[in-house]
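How a chain folds remains the central question behind the approach discussed here. The record that follows shows the chain in one-letter code together with its fold in token form:
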Amino acid sequence: MTKVYVMNPWTGALVAIDPADVIPEKLEAMAALMDDDLREDLHREFLDDPFAFWAAYVRRVGPEEAGKIWFS
């Protein structure tokens, strides 16, 4: 997977998230906004791959919810 799409909560547009954009610091900043149980489950599964973690998170919560977190 080369990109993941999330919805911009202000415009409603789908926005492509590139793997290079999903850095540990970004995920750490968003962690407080994520569902704790889901975040921990996916973290165990994708410990060393931030983009795979984010892609799995988006698949689980959907692009609209993930967009709220990404753009917060």
In short: Strands lie at 4-7, 14-17.
